[in-house]
Amino acid sequence: MATVIVITSGKGGVGKTTTSAAISTGLALCGYKTVVIDFDVGLRNLDLIMGCERRVVYDFVNVIKQESNLRQSLIKDKRVDNLFILPASQTRDKDILDIEGVGRVIDELSESFDYIICDSPAGIERGAFMAMYFADEAVVVTNPEVSSVRDSDRILGLLASKTRRAEQGGKPIKEHLLLTRYDPLRVDKGEMLSVEDVKDILAIPLLGVIPESKAVLQASNAGTPIILEGDSDAGQAYDDAVSRLLGEERMHRFLEVEKKGFFSKFRLFRS
Amino acid sequence: MRFLDYFRSNRKTSASVAKERLQIIVARERTTRNGPDYLPMMQEELLLVVRKYIQVENDAVKIQLEQEGNCEVLELNITLPESAAAS
Prior knowledge:
heterodimer, A: alpha/beta, B: alpha+beta, two-stranded antiparallel ribbon, extended
């Protein structure tokens, strides 16, 4: 049986797809057979972030409509063993997703995979519901910014009421907070919500904090999941997050301002 | 305590303003989210009823459902305008 993890946020542009690519790649690197599904029907982008856009032949909707089988539609990653991508359809309407169809695909994938990562579209429409419906765990991607935190809280409400686990009254979905685009310098200046602020408001366990990093855009330019950029701070932060997802305890890094200039020494002195 | 905090102490940082605003709005949205579906509709109808008799603002009727022990309390708060009380 596979573990189904939805990467969700409510708000757009906070880093869901970047996170889906990083976490699925990280799990595969740890030896788990992993598939990442793009639920953003009509606006697919996971293929670009994963660098496999030119290899898409069949997509998720083709599989749901039984126009192709899984073996034909899954794209095997060329860099990492055990990693497969199921791209979204570019042409169809998002309303084509339905619980029976998606459930059938998830069940079939469950037979041969360890992890199924569902990359949710933004918003709270059908695509987002379908991505979260079958989840065992949820990674709620949040920016330290008011609208993103509010939307994340909204999503937490939906995870607790509109999913299979909620409807069947089973164990609740395991929720994780992933704070992205974090800038410790601005937090220090009181210009940005801190990790503690966001944790206080959302009240779910912290999976990781990804620092604002130029490396993320550069990795997406190249179609490389950021976790493969092992030298970058964001890549390392995702690596930590994946280890925590697998149950390992790791210290949170990149929460403090790094530069040891004159002023930071001065601050140490007076505090 | 940091040296600069002395000068800052009477000025709120924008992050703390953000946190306060979020705490208020999130708490409010959670109560309506966990409440029964009919609450917003009931609130609207109550407002219409009140308006038949008194001209009140759009946000004059406030409904809150609270759990006190094993007892549910439906709190209804109608704010009347000053002039209405006089007439």
